[in-house]
Amino acid sequence: MANLPNDELPSKFDVVVDGTGLIQSILSAAIVRAGKSVLHLDRNGYYGEHWGSFMHRELRNWMNGDQVESPDTPLSFDTNTIALPLTAANPVSNLVEVVPDHTEAPPETNKPTTEENTCLESVSSHLQPAAEDTTEESSSATASDEQGVSTEESKDPVLPSATDDEQGSSATEDNTTSTTEQGLSSNDQATSPANEQGPSNNKQGSPTQLSWDSMQSQWRTFSFDLIPKVLYCRGAMVELLTQSNCSRYTEFKAVGKVYRLFEGNVEQVPCSRADLFSSQAVSMLEKRRMMKFLSFCSDYTSQPDAFQEFSDAPFEQFLQSRGLPDKVINYIAHSIAMVGRKAPTLQALEATKIFLTSLGRFGNAPFLYPVFGVGELGQAFCRLCAVYGGVYCLRRWVAGMEVTDDHVSAVVCSTGQRIETSAVICSASNVRDTLNISEHLRDEVVSRAMVVTDGPLPGTDGKVALVTVPPLSMGASQTYPISVLQLDPSSNCSAPGTYLLHFVCSSTVSSTAQIDLEPVIKTLIEKEGGPRVLWSLFFNLSLCLVTDPVSATPRGVFVTSDPDTSLNYEGAVKEARRLFEELCPGEEFLPTPPDPKDIVYETPTDSTDPSSTDNTDPSPTDSTDASHTDNTDDPNSDDNPNTDPAAGSGEGRHTKNTAEQSNACDDRHNSSLNDRNEDTVTTAD
Questions:
Q1: Three-state SS sequence of 86-136
Q2: ∠ at Cα 84 (80, 90), nearest 5°?
Q3: Is the Cβ–Cβ distance between 198 and 488 less than 8 Å?
Q4: What is the strand order of the sheet 92-98 is part of?
Q5: What is the residue-wise DSSP string for 536-569?
Q6: 112-144, pLDDT tens digit by residue?
Q7: Residue 9, Cβ neighbours under 10 Å: how many?
Q8: Phi–psi pair at 94, nearest 5 degrees
Q9: Across 269-278, 499-508, 556-565, least confident range
Q10: Distance CA 307, CA 297 (A)
Q11: I need a labelling partner for 507 at 20 to 30 A (CA). Which of 30, 130, 574, 668 fits?
Q12: What is the residue-wise DSSP string for 322-349?
């Protein structure tokens, strides 16, 4: 995998992909599986772009706006070359970091504590990385594509369960939920020792209270998502992961319960029949009406007459026509469909159906969350592409595109190297001004807050959970719904004894993340019995979404969207599939790789040897055949039936170099994973 500034890359590829966002990563894996050669570049030193996840020091670099320096000498282009920006526009604004001062005396105990420290006056100097870690940090960027990949791979398409605890003990039937359908499983109940002791660090007069000062030595144990999302258990992303076998590179935690903020308190949303009839929040009449409507939604396509006249009408209007009270409408629109009252009815019915059908697949949880953060999904598809021969190079990007007869014919890299290609995939935000495609795009502003606390949100069960805050819950100024994702230490996104809370909502250019989200943070956290805030970060992200297929660019140029403000991946998978069908018409989108046991290794015949043609046996050759004698003991031989299954699943298109690359990739990942989790996780053998 190339990563040095002056590495010379091959001079020709079928497709060049600029940027390692999730949609680009899915496309690169799908295209290379279709038999085309792929070069995947990224100007950053990490994978994911806006879809990325960072450890704390990596987040610090991102906050500081660290970018790869532009070439020392300006690149010169021919008249038929479209020059692209050498530096990417900074989408981050209104960035505010807050470290509360917890210098007050701890609760009275029999044993005084000396571990409570005062936060430094200067946050920036307080959080600067140590000098001795510089080498380690720079090397982590080149290996970041392998973070979070499970060292225990399955032969079946599996969404593995969460990592076992530090003692290596396995989950029992009491705390594990699993299913044999498609071999997927989710360990939604298992908790690590770190998780069990998390909420108790500042409860019941504990002599030791956490502070952000004490967390600095555990910076590797945090993983911060720029745009957090969850997967429907029966959504398009889960189906794609299992179909493509990318699920073996990732692990997931079940998002066990969904809550909503109502009148200042957090209450559980009744999703299943059992939850509904055990809930005290709704009356018996409301329960029956809600259950009847949810039963209709699970099979609404068989009753088109019931919703046809409301297809384009607001969902709220359709719900009212069914005689549902306002409380039930809020439940369904904001916490089950999660599209809001004003969304088109047909869109809302589809979202409700996906939610309902996701229940019960991995226990009672409708959602899954990737262990180590959402950045692991893009890296899983990148790894699949690399295994099948894709070439990756970070800190390098497409600086120009040569156009011949209104069709892209080559690209010029940021190093000045010219690479022939017939197709280029890039992010719309990087080329919108150069290619004049603004009429096909829609701008969105997202308000984000990351909050580290020493305990879970009051009213939740202390595990991975989702909290929805409907519009107007915080007053007339709250015009957008707010989503809150709570991550405990078992998600490998927060340090032992802490919780990471992600706050997300849409916003406007005239507002700021702190204005949008601080009121709900105070309502949820700053109450009696609530956790203490150890650290928080507010910022806005400007995102660029493709609203309709772009046809104004030169032929062969395909643009992708940034993440949207929804909580799921349905739109990303749909867009990736549409672009793939344009690039590779008639090809299957990320087909299931063959089982290594079913691969037949044919013996190459020498056309100059007449005896070889006379004696060729069209049936699979036994390993004791003389033609295999020299290669059977060679682990790198193409004819060795015992070679790496990942390299062998390439349907005869891959050489031993691909197998070596895959093995080296696994070795680098295992080292990275062990370094990252040395404080909290013991990986499986």
A1: CCCCCCEEEEEEECCCCCCCCCCCCCCCCCCCCCCCCHHHHCCCCHHHHHH
A2: 170
A3: yes
A4: 92-98, 533-546, 441-453, 499-507, 482-487, 465-469, 257-262, 265-268
A5: EEEEEEEEEEE-S---SSPBTEEEEPPP-SSSSS
A6: 443 333 333 333 333 344 444 444 444 444 444
A7: 17
A8: 55, 45
A9: 269-278
A10: 10
A11: 574
A12: TT--HHHHHIIIIIIS-S-TTSBHHHHH
d(CA 332, CA 309): 20
Among 642, 635, 641, residue whose Cα is nearest residue 660: 635
- How is 173-200 classified by DSSP, letter by letter? TTT-EE--GGG-EE--S---HHHHHSGG
8 A C-beta contact, residue 382 and residue 145? yes
Q: Sheet with 423-427: list strands edge to edge.
A: 391-394, 38-42, 15-18, 423-427, 557-560
Q: Which of the residue ranges 19-23, 57-61, 161-165 has the most confident prediction, judged by mean pLDDT?
A: 19-23
Specify whether the CB–CB gap between 331 and 269 falls below 8 A: yes
pLDDT for 5 beyond 80 = no
> Does position 148 have pLDDT exceeding 60, yes or no?
no
pLDDT at 596 over 70: yes
Helix (H/G/I), strand (E/B), else coil: 16: strand
Q: Is 500 helix (H, G, I), strand (E, B) or coil?
A: strand
Instruction: Give which of 394, 358, 356, 354 is closest to 574, Cα–Cα.
Output: 354
Give the mean model confidence (pLDDT) for residues 381-399.
94
Which residues make beta-bridge pairs with 547? Answer: none
Structure-model confidence comparison of residues 330 and 16, the more confident one = 16
Residue with tokens 């660090």: 201
Confidence at residue 477, expressed as pLDDT on a 0 to 100 scale: 80
Q: How confident is the model over 185-196, as a mean pLDDT?
A: 41
Q: Is the CB of residue 256 less than 8 Å from the CB of residue 463? A: yes
Q: Tell the residue number behind the tokens 């530096």, with chain if given.
A: 87
Going by C-alpha positions, the residue among 342, 299, 337, 283 that lies closest to residue 318 is 342
The confidence score (pLDDT) of residue 519 equals 93
**Do the Cβ atoms of 246 and 381 come closer than 8 Å?**
yes
Task: Compute the distance between CA of residue 373 and CA of residue 55 in angstroms, rounded to an integer.
Answer: 10
Residue 273 CA, distance from chain mean position: 30
553 CA to centre of own chain: 29
Looking at the chain, how many residues does it have?
685
Give the integer Cα–Cα distance in Å for 213 and 206.
18
Classify strands 224-225 and 53-54 as parallel, antiparallel or unpaired: antiparallel
Residue listed under structure tokens 């739109």: 571
Question: How many angstroms separate the CA atoms of 122 and 485, rounded?
Answer: 29
Q: Are 425 and 24 in contact (CB under 8 A)?
A: yes
- Tell which residue, 231, 278, 276, has the closest CA to residue 567: 231
Percent share of the chain, pLDDT over 70: 68
CA distance 158 to 154: 7
User: What span, in angstroms and rounded, lies between the C-alpha atoms of 372 and 160?
Assistant: 13
DSSP for residue 681: -
* Beta strand spans in 438-589 (E): 441-453, 465-469, 482-487, 499-507, 533-546, 557-560
Mean pLDDT of 455-476: 90
Instruction: Name beta bridge partners: 255.
Output: 367
The DSSP secondary-structure symbol of 248 reads G
**Phi, psi for residue 682 in degrees, rounded to 5:** -105, 115
CA separation (Å) from 684 to 331, 550, 618, 666?
41, 46, 42, 15
Q: Is 598 exposed, middle or buried (0-12, 13-18, 19+ CB in 10 A)?
A: exposed
Hey, which residues does 444 pair with through a beta bridge? 543
